Amino acid sequence: MSEDSLLPFDLPSVARKKVSVGFDGGQLSSDAGVLLLRGVERKLGLADRLASCIREWRKPERIEHPLEEMLRLRMLAIAAGYQDADDCDSLRYDPVFKMAVGRLPESGDPLCSQPTMSRLENAPSKIAIARLMAAMVDQFCASYRRAPSAITLDIDDTFDAVHGHQQLSLFNAHYDERCFLPIHIYEGTSGKPVAVILREGKTPTGVEVCAPSSST
Description:
Structural class: alpha+beta
Strand content: 5-15%
Largest sheet: 3 strands, antiparallel
């Protein structure tokens, strides 16, 4: 049974219905859809695939958040509209995000904080970044039960504004902002992502989107 709390003011009724206010909602989240995304990610195994490309640099006895868990949190947060690592400081307590990465919503430990996530984002070497990109290509190839007779690649640069002077960011006169212009590659028919190449904020040339030919 619910108990009415007396307020220092009266709430007007709505269509002769009493309006009550409760402040004991418990743990709440506005991102329940993240659990559906988690099901997709689990089926693809994307976080585990990417985690295998990054060399663990931390001491084993001090690890509280496995790489695959941190990557899973970052991907789901971005998909839910939380673009910055700063959002991890609040999302680490969100019951839905905790369930999405495999922790209990109430008794489970909090997820990683913003400083921990930022260290992950700065940890991969150039070799690891190349491996991560190759892993995405492997993910694309694995999406087909059998190799298609032909594929169409949609290759385009995409404006990504920055708010500072990050490495590789440049002022682009066309967009009138400092930015990155990463190259996005998708399969033209299905729309499946193939690869993303981070690059400086200048218009790419045709050479950048064409791999050099080689003989076998």
